[in-house]
Structures are given as C-alpha cells and as structure tokens.
Write a structure and sequence with these properties.
alpha/beta, globular, DNA-binding
DNA sequence: AGAACTATGTTTTTT
DNA sequence: ACATAGTTCT
C-alpha cells in the first residue's frame, strides 16, 4: 500500500495565507531554533510565534537538502499540520509533499497499516470514535445479558471514556463515580467488567479506538527491533507542536522514535495546557530535558499578537495560577484599548450586546472572519445563535456536535465500514436495525449467524429473513453485493448506497429529512475528494469535519463569524474576540473540582483571552435560567473577580437594548413548579441530618464531599454520593 | 415477546 | 438533538 501522506500542497491554501515573517525572532533566537542538531525544547508564551519556529526549522532542514521524507511533523490537529507544511513550502519554494505530517493518531494509523504485520495486526481494522458509543452499548448490553435490565450499565459516559482513552487517567473512576452517583465498590466492579468486555469486543470485531492507535504504535517501537530501526532511520528529524498536550503514550512514542539520533524539537506552553481530561500531562514538557540529555532550551517571551492592555489582563489571569514556568509576556506594540468587562441583565441581553458589538465592529471595517465569539461549552451559544440568525448574520460554529455524530451520517458510514471490515458488527448492527420490523433481538440472531463466517457478506445473503421484512432485506443484500464489485470510485459507491438508503432515510426522519439530505450531499462532496474508501472512513473518525466547515465546502466560501468552544479555538487568533458566559457556575465548569481541575479552567480562560489581537470583550449574564425555568442570579466568574479592576473597563448593563426585557419571559409561562426536592445551597445539609430519597428511602448525611454533593448512608441501600442538582432529597425532621 | 411509538429528560471540554 | 423509560401495538 502506498504511504498516505498529509501533503500541504495537495490541500487548498489556508484561509489566512499571510506572508510568514521571520521578524518574530531575534537573530540569536532564529539561529538557536534552526541550526544545530540534537534535542531542542522551545518554551513559548501565547502569541509568541511558537508554531512559526517549527516552520522555520522545517524550512531550514529543507534548505540544507535534508530529504523531506525523513522529516516527521506531529501536531495537535491536522489543520495545523497542513498550514505549517504550506508555510514551509512558501518559505523555501519547495514542495513539502513528502514531509510526513499530521496528528499522532493519524500518523499511527498510517504506520500501523504499513508495519502492523510486525505486531500480527492485520490491516483490516476500523477506527472507532465517540459517535460509536451508542452501538457499543447496545452490543455490550446484549453480550452481558443486561438488555432491558439496569439502565445504569454500561452508561454512555463510561463507554465514551473508554473510547476516548481518558481511561488512562487515574482520576477517571472517581470522576465517574461522582457523576453516576453510585456506590464506589459496585461501580468499580461493574466498571472492570465493562472494560474487560469492551476490550474483548474490540478484538473480536477488528475495532481500534483512539488509545489503541497509540498503544500499538508504542508497542511497535518498543517490541519490534526491526520496526524501530526502520522507523527511526526513516524519520531523522522529529518536530512536535503543542507538547504540553501530549499524554504519557505520546511522550513515550517521541522518546522511542528519537532514541537513536536525538533530533527532536518540541514546542509548547505549559500555561496553555487544557486537555488533561483526555490524559494530557503538562509535566511532559518539564521532563523533556531529563529524557533527552543535552537538550537546548529556548524561551520566547515576546508577544507579537496582542496589544499591551490585552496582554496585561491575560498576564493577570495566569498570574494567579498555582504552578507554572515563570514567564511574563511583553510586547513592544504600542496603544490599544483596554478590554471591556460587560455585565448583561440575562442571557438574551448578553446575546443582543454581542450581536451589537459584532455589527459595530463590522461597520468599523473589521472583516467578519476576524471576529470570534468563544465560550466554555457548546450549548452556551444557543441564545446567541438565535439572535444572530434573526439579524441575518451568518456564522460557523466550531466544537459541539460533529457532522459524523449525527444519526443519518453514521448510518451512511456504516455501509462503507462493513465493506472495508466485514467483521465490524457495530456497523452491521446499525444497518440491520434500519430494516422495518427488525429490532435488537433479530439483529442479534442475524449477527450470530454471520459472525464466524469466512465471508460475512455471503453469509448474510444466505440468511433466511422472515416474510415481513424479506423484500427490504433482499434489496439490502443486493446493494451490498453491488457495492463489493471491484474498481468503483467512492462517489459511485456513495450513490449506490443512497439508492438503497434514501427511502429508508425518508421514512426514519420524515420530520426533517430535507435538512439531513443537504448534509448527505455535503458528504458526497467530501467523499469525491478521496481515492479510496479506507482513507475516507479513517479520516472521518480521526478528524471529523464539522457541520459549518462542510457547509462552506459545499457552497461559496464567504467570510463568516466564528463561534467556537475555547478548546476548538486553540492556536487561532482574531482581531476581535468576545468571551461570553463568564458567570460563576458556568466558568469554571460547575463540576470542576478544586485543585488541578480548577487550575485547568483558569488556563482555559487564559487561552480564550489570548486569542485576541486588538479588541477583547468579556461578558456574563447576571441571571441564568435553570432547566426548570427558574431564574437564578449569578455573579461574575471568580477568575475575573480576582483581577485588578484597573485592567479593564466596565460596562454595566449592555448597550442598546432593542426589545423590552419582558420579552425574555413569555407571559404564558406556567408558574415554577414546586419541587419535591429541596434544591439548595449546599450549606443547608449538614452531617448527621436525616434525609429521605424517592428511591433509596431514608438515610443519614455522612459528609459533604464537594459543592452541591452530599454523601448519604441509606438505611437500605448503603452509601451513595448524590448530586443535589439532580437528586430528589428531602430533609426529614 | 418483541417491535413501534410516545413522553420526558439531559448536555464539559475532544485528537 | 438525542437517549431513555414507559406504553401500546402486532
């Protein structure tokens, strides 16, 4: 198989092809990051051009006639790799086609398909992502004989954690126990049962999750001497971006890859580590020098992105961090206005204010795609999305739901996945469930019949359907037979699937199939860019396109406002940035526990604020509506409260309110329901108090383990940790 | 019994 | 928008 690369020049130019300037480094720094060999660590603050140092290094190597195929570039997103390769190409005038560049996971995928035989790992595997959780749960439940029974296990959250690899974190079990409100001992036992089954399940069906890709890659390097020799002589130069976001496995892979020659350059900023929930460990960056003796360290502290007032505020945010590499960013950029801190009456007022600012900035001549609105969680922008839509402002939303996570896209992908890997029961499950009159039980029977066949497709064709669904079943097997014929372009296979799937689909999603149909058309555009299905299926799991991006791909690429979660905004910058929802309880996230989690939330705010080049707005609503329609007052985020008010200008009650406030409260709203529980300030519960729970019965409060949580020892059900936002708890006497 | 339908509840962040 | 629980239909 031809190695599949991530060439910069096969892709369209990045959206902001601004000429790359070497001025961000002084001559000494430039020499330090480009010349010489051996391990090199660049510790750099936000906006200091750290990614550019990697581009310079790569360009320098190419100019020294280092063969491009001996360079391996590892980045956090594929987009970042593409942009860096493109820029290095611009600098050198050379093609960077043959540089291997991409995320750890995508690179692992390529290498495992090339070298997998060293591990006895065939190339017939499918990569699963969190969109597969639902199917995995169903199949696990039936294999555990739990179908219908307990709703608790395997819960989606547990399976999501298993898939995304966060399971490597020691804290995971504690974290899950909190959320599931379950007794620890039972939970751990069930948890181990589930993870054992999950492992076996993946093995049986040729599925690899995110962690497996890295585990196998490390295994390849650690256990096969020949593979390690081959790989480390193939890649003489390793370049790693965003090193603070690597996990243990990734750090180990870098170490093994570079163990022969030590030519590794890593770049990162410990203050921007925001992925520990996924297993990232910013201590990796601190340990780098120990792992690679003779490491040269370069510190970049000058910020070229933001104006002085913005920088002063961001420095203040991070100054309160408990643990950090001491680093104070400075800029020689003069002028700039102070960031604005805006308190709005409620979420609707906040949304109106934000939309007003956007319109005003546009009138001032700022391009729409130079403005971004950032927030902690995907749903925090819902109100704003409505407001923007009503004003006719188009936007791209990043983060939140991915295109490949919607049900109809998953359905479609399932067909391609069984073509590539006919033992992928997860996808069979999805396809067969689409048949009318066929439910989970019948699917189990069919799967049992084809599971051990050498040719599952033939076995399926030979299956005897019940009369009720015979006709549709035969259409299915016929479609599958024609899909398997050789020499078809992916786009043709797409059309073939659609002739079968379209009627099914229109029936299943009768209420909104035109909208979904549009998204399927976008998938056709995506798929026609691929030479083979394998590549397409891998890419959708490793780097799922988001809805907005696919939209832009299908239509005209006009400038659009960006709405993004802070996590998805990493590494990007805009002229004007508005960070919304900075209210206590929203930011930091209410589940964030004191200590490391809380500190990560602080770094998250730091990342958000440092995205701004010239204008920064921080907004929060003074009132939030709870799920049961109660209006709760809320304060500003504690991260903002601890900052000296001299660093920002304050706007009380946002600008032009275009509608009377009452419009936020529909008049026909029923009065708030009296709650059966006593939802309360945590302070109301105290140790020793007698309480009653709708399901668990009577018990006694044993402790208050965290905000909004109580541990109760129930007379009949033992000890439980309950979350007061959900639990229906009443104080008795 | 199993499939299909209806009502209700929930949603951190993601390669 | 989706998952789940409970209910009704075949």
């Amino acid at each position: 198989m031809q190695p599949r690369l991530f060439p910069g020049d096969e892709q369209p130019a990045p959206p902001t092809p601004a000429a790359i300037s070497t001025e961000v480094l002084n001559p000494a720094q430039y020499a330090a990051v480009t010349h010489g060999s051996g391990p090199l660590l660049v510790i750099a603050g936000a906006g200091s051009g750290k990614t550019r140092t990697l581009v310079f290094r790569m360009a320098h190597l190419l100019e020294q006639d280092v063969p491009p195929e001996s360079i391996l570039l590892l980045t956090f997103t594929r987009r970042a790799a593409q942009e860096m390769l493109w820029r290095a190409g611009q600098l050198t005038g050379q093609s960077c086609r043959r540089v291997m560049g991409g995320t750890f996971h995508a690179t692992a995928n390529i290498l495992l398909r090339q070298y997998g035989h060293h591990l006895g790992l065939g190339s017939g595997f499918t990569i699963i992502d969190r969109g597969d959780a639902e199917g995995i749960i169903n199949l696990l439940k039936s294999s555990l004989g739990m179908s219908g029974a307990g709703k608790r296990f395997p819960s989606k959250r547990v399976v999501l954690n298993l898939i995304s690899g966060a399971i490597n974190k020691a804290t995971t079990i504690d974290d899950l126990v909190f959320r599931e409100s379950i007794h620890l001992a039972e939970f751990i036992q069930d948890f181990h049962t589930i993870s054992d089954h999950y492992r076996q399940f993946k093995r049986d069906h040729g599925l690899l999750d995110y962690d497996d890709l890295l585990v196998f890659w490390r295994q390849l390097l650690a256990e096969s001497d020949r593979a390690r020799e081959e790989l480390s002589s193939r890649f003489q130069h390793i370049l790693v971006d965003e090193y603070q976001d690597t996990n243990q496995l990734q750090a180990e892979i870098v170490r093994l890859l570079a163990s022969h020659h030590g030519n590794v350059m890593a770049v990162g900023d410990d203050a921007q580590s925001i992925y520990s929930f996924r297993g990232a460990d910013f201590h990796n960056i601190m340990r780098f020098a120990d792992q690679f003796p003779g490491t040269r360290i370069v510190k970049l502290e000058e910020n070229y992105r933001s104006t002085q007032p913005i920088l002063q505020l961001t420095n203040a945010i991070i100054a309160n961090a408990e643990q950090k590499y001491a680093k104070t960013l400075f800029t020689s950029t003069e002028g700039g206005s102070r960031p604005l801190l805006v308190a709005a009456a409620n979420e609707a007022a906040e949304a109106r204010y934000v939309a007003d600012v956007i319109e005003e900035r546009r009138r001032a001549g700022v391009a729409l795609d130079e403005i971004a609105v950032l927030f902690r969680s995907g749903f925090h922008s819902f109100k704003l999305e409505i407001e923007l839509a009503s004003r006719g402002l188009e936007f791209d939303k990043r983060g939140g739901l991915k295109l490949t996570e919607s049900a109809h896209i998953k359905d479609l992908l399932a067909f391609f996945r069984v073509l590539i890997n006919p033992w992928d029961n997860l996808s069979w499950n999805r396809i067969l469930l689409q048949l009318e009159k066929v439910g989970p039980k019948t699917v189990q029977k069919i799967l049992a019949a084809i599971r051990d066949a050498d040719d599952p497709l033939a076995a399926l064709a030979a299956y005897r359907p019940a009369p009720g669904w015979k006709a549709q079943f035969e259409r299915l097997t016929d479609t599958l037979r024609r899909l398997g014929l050789p020499d078809q372009a992916p786009a043709d296979q797409f059309d073939l699937v659609m002739t079968y799937y379209e009627p099914v689909f229109e029936k299943m999603y009768y209420d909104d199939y035109p909208r979904r149909r549009k998204e399927l058309d976008q998938v056709r555009v995506l798929i026609s860019g691929y030479g083979d299905l394998q590549a397409f299926v891998d890419d959708t799991a490793l780097d799922p396109p988001d809805v907005g991006a696919a939209d832009a791909l299908g239509g005209e690429d006009e400038q659009r406002l960006i709405l993004s979660t802070i996590h998805s905004a990493k590494g990007l910058e805009w002229d004007t940035v508005l960070v919304i929802g900075l209210a206590d309880g929203r930011f930091p996230h209410q589940n964030a526990q004191p200590g490391e989690q809380y500190e990560e939330e602080r770094r998250l705010l730091y990342v958000a604020a440092t995205r701004a080049k010239r204008e920064l707005y921080l907004t929060y609503p003074k009132e939030l509506v709870t799920p049961d329609r109660q209006h709760l007052r809320c304060a500003m985020s504690p991260f903002l409260r601890e900052i000296s008010p001299g660093l920002y200008n304050r706007v009380e009650r946002a600008g032009a309110i275009t509608q009377p406030l009452t419009s936020d409260y529909p008049i026909d709203l029923p009065p708030p329901k009296p709650r059966t529980s006593v939802p309360t300030a945590p302070g109301e519960y105290a140790e020793g108090m007698r309480v009653s729970h709708a399901f668990f019965g009577l018990g006694r409060v044993a402790s208050l383990p965290g905000p909004r949580r109580v541990e109760v020892v129930f007379d009949r059900h033992g000890s439980k940790i309950l979350h007061l936002d959900y639990a229906r708890l009443e104080i008795v006497g």
